[in-house]
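Figure 3 (text version): structure tokens given as input.
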């Protein structure tokens, strides 16, 4: 039997699934991090003392660990997928060495499959791709070509592509016994993707409309940090210069939008500037806590804590946020009601994006027969309520929140092989 592999190369996380001999699908597990997902990141560094400047690299959780060990002397590569359809991106230089985007993605794919213990040689591989690639001026044909080229460079020249939303809803769609219009909501860490597809039993899928937005789980995390953590680090405070009160620079706290950006503040000039503001601040201890957070690379740990609170709020009306380090000691109860208020504008933007997908498909709300939600953010009750209210709870289904795309791609490979 020819091995069949489904690969969901994601912006934030990647997942790979294999077809078992009995026809079932198994998702690969990884040591460290989230067991069935592999963080889509690369880290490069040089070891000049021991290796004479040889370029070294790591992928996934190991890349994050390497970056946290020495952020100033390493290069973290994230969100590679978002550049695939951007013709302006041709190559980047990493410690003076040129890397095309295809080469970076290929390097990641090799490390990703090796970590999963998978040898793709001789396998039928089905890889996901979005209906529309990311970017305001995305060239979808270019994105598909680059994706194929990256797989080829990684040793998989015969890879087949399939739509990610088709993969996400494939297992669900196989249960349909009549033609149907289906809205797929695929929520990642950095983006939310909405696709309207026409499923015809026995005939496959036709994409009708698509829209996406850069709001998802990471933005929701940031809302919690912005309301609960940042005020304890000096946000909204004042400092005095020559008798004049000035606001603490808000840009310090915008860096919390992505945890790795805090490391960019770990340079003498920025730290010196924050220290000068702290000396003239009404609450200097808050800004000193910010300095300690930056100097000791605690951004990742902070985000892990906040993400856990967000997850807890999906099953409870309250969650306790506890984070302590030196003079910073936070122990607060976060309510679901407050959280939903903080993300209200984000939810409205998501709803408007669903409108765009429906408009692109030329369909009214009542023309949608089924809604399938997948991805971690679909756990958030306010997100689910958005679709229940719009389409009717009886039409909304969720499942395989982290692995549905990869598993569906493996099943697509199985059916294509059988055909």
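Below: residues designed for each position.
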């Amino acid at each position: 039997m020819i091995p069949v592999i489904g690969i969901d190369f994601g912006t934030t996380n990647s997942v790979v699934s294999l077809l078992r001999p009995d026809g079932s699908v198994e998702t690969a597990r990884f040591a460290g991090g989230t067991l069935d997902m592999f963080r889509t990141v690369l880290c490069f560094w040089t070891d000049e003392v021991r290796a004479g400047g040889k370029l070294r690299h790591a992928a996934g959780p190991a890349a994050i660990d390497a970056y946290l060990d020495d952020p100033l002397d390493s290069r973290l590569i994230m969100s590679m997928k978002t550049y695939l359809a951007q013709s302006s991106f041709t190559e980047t230089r990493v410690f003076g060495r040129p890397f095309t985007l295809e080469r970076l993605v290929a390097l990641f794919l090799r490390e990703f499959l090796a970590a999963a213990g998978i040898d793709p040689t001789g396998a039928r591989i089905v890889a996901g791709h979005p209906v529309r690639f990311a970017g305001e001026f995305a060239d979808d044909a270019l994105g598909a070509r680059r994706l194929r080229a990256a797989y080829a460079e990684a040793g998989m020249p015969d890879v087949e592509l399939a739509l990610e939303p088709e993969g996400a809803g494939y297992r669900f769609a196989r249960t349909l016994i009549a033609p149907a219009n289906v809205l797929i909501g695929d929520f990642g860490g950095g983006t939310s993707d909405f696709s309207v597809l026409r499923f015809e039993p026995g005939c496959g899928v036709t994409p009708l409309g698509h829209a996406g937005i850069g709001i998802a789980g990471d933005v929701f995390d940031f809302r919690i940090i912005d309301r609960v953590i940042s005020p304890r680090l000096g946000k909204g405070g004042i400092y005095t210069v020559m008798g004049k009160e000035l606001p603490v620079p808000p840009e310090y706290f915008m860096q919390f939008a992505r945890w790795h950006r805090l490391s960019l503040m770990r340079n003498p000039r920025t730290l010196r500037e924050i220290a000068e503001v702290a000396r003239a601040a009404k609450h200097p201890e808050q800004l000193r806590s910010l300095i300690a957070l930056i100097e000791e690379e605690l951004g990742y740990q902070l985000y892990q804590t906040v993400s856990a609170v967000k997850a807890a709020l999906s099953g409870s009306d309250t969650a306790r946020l506890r984070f302590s380090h030196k003079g910073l000691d936070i122990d607060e109860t976060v309510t679901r009601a407050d959280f939903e208020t903080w993300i209200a504008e984000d939810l409205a933007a998501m709803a408007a994006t669903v409108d765009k997908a429906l408009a692109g498909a030329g369909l009214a709300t009542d023309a949608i027969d089924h809604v399938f939600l997948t991805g971690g953010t679909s756990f958030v009750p306010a997100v689910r309520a958005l679709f229940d209210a719009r389409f009717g709870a009886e039409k909304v289904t969720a499942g395989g929140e982290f692995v549905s795309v990869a598993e569906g791609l493996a099943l697509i490979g199985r059916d294509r092989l059988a055909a």
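The longest strand covers residues 204-213.
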